[in-house]
Design a protein that fits this description.
It is built from 12 helices and 9 strands. With 333 residues, the chain is of the alpha/beta class. The longest helix has 25 residues, at 11-35. Bound molecules: guanosine-5'-diphosphate (GDP) and magnesium ion.
């Protein structure tokens, strides 16, 4: 079923409530404006996107923010850090935060990642809980209980509805409504940008009245260097199989902007000598491929010519060393 036919079949259920909400919001707004000599009311808040790996959280955030902020691939655990994406209009500032997927903490790095997820439930103004339409049940009981108890409004997004038919979707909507009765449920397709603008309206309605937290022209809280390392990491994920990508960390050693070119030196850290060999490849071919693909994307990101120098270093214990995890931003300093 195409997203469009879904819209035609379901207008009443998923859109009515929203229109009423908006109508109310407008009335409140007009009243407020009259009382305050037409001063504009501003709403801002933190909206945290959580859900299992690979459900489409980063795809959604990129659509919402309109920039390729989070790297997206079909492999799980692509997103290791919490990344903010900021959406501004005259009356709203929505600070989205894309979290790593919910996983078991097998390594110390994962413990840090789960810390991000848990705090994402408590420090939000609105929680966007994303599930995949084919997901059978919620995997993490501890997180589900936190979600059931929280006072923070939850919008539950059933993503990838482009992949299934309508009867199946109804079943799913009922299932999730039973598990999280307070949540507002929206079937969406992040990839095809279907129903995403309705979600945005719902979020705006739920935001508290508040002045902006960040400059209104700011898109993210992360430094430019961070995006360079994420782009390189994305190319590693796409280019190598098995455990290689998960054993790598990318550190930007030098970032020098000149009038016509940006010069970047990055080191890829791996855990074992054998991985270093695989990364570099025969006569350096594999590393060169990663470097070229990454350079092209970095040039697009900065809209400028880039000279990228990549090398590989063995660093046996980066995933389990607290100092190093702090340095890479996985644990609080
Ligand atoms: P995350 O791990 O939750 O951040 O998931 P990503 O955003 O990285 O997406 C994982 C994969 O799902 C990517 O291959 C996306 O293209 C794909 N994906 C995301 N949204 C949709 C959708 O609405 N429909 C379909 N069919 N695929 C999607
Ligand atoms: Mg992600």
């Amino acid at each position: 079923m195409s997203p469009m036919s879904y819209q035609l079949l379901y207008p009443a259920i998923y859109f009515n409530e929203l229109f009423f909400l908006n109508a109310d919001a407008n009335i409140i707004f007009c009243f407020f404006a009259a009382q305050n000599n037409c001063k504009i009311m501003h709403k801002s808040g933190f909206v945290n996107i959580i859900g299992s790996p690979n459900v489409g959280k980063s795809t959604l955030m990129n659509i919402l923010v309109g920039e390729r902020l989070s790297i997206i691939t079909s492999k799980a655990q692509t997103t290791r850090h919490r990344i903010l994406g900021i959406v501004n209009d005259e009356e709203h500032q929505i600070v989205f935060s894309d979290t790593p997927g919910i996983v078991d903490p097998a390594y110390k790095m994962h413990e840090g990642m789960m810390g991000f997820v848990k705090s994402a439930i408590t420090d939000a103004d609105v929680i966007l809980l994303m599930v995949e339409v084919k997901e059978r049940q919620f995997k993490d009981q501890e997180i589900l209980e936190k979600l059931q108890k929280t006072e923070v409004p939850i919008i539950l997004l059933i993503n990838k509805i482009d992949e299934i038919d309508q009867t199946f979707l109804e079943e799913k909507v009922n299932y999730w409504k039973e598990i999280l009765p307070k949540a507002k449920v929206y079937p969406i397709s992040a990839l095809h940008d279907f129903n995403v603008d309705q979600v945005l309206l719902e979020i705006k309605a739920l935001l508290p009245e508040c002045p902006p937290f960040y400059d209104k022209d700011q898109l993210t809280d992360k430094p430019e260097k961070f995006f360079v390392s994420e782009i390189i990491r994305e190319k590693i994920l796409l280019n190598y199989k098995k455990e290689i990508p998960y054993s790598c960390e990318v550190e930007i050693e030098a970032f020098k902007e000149e009038p016509k070119i940006i010069r970047i030196r990055a080191v890829i850290m791996v855990i074992r000598d054998s991985q270093k060999g695989i990364l570099i490849g025969h006569q350096g071919k594999e590393l060169k491929k990663v470097g070229t693909l990454a350079r092209k994307d970095i040039e697009k990101f900065f809209d400028k010519k880039v000279f990228l120098e990549l090398y590989v270093k063995v660093n046996k214990d980066w995933r389990n060393s607290e100092d190093q995890l702090k340095r890479f931003g996985y644990l609080n300093k």
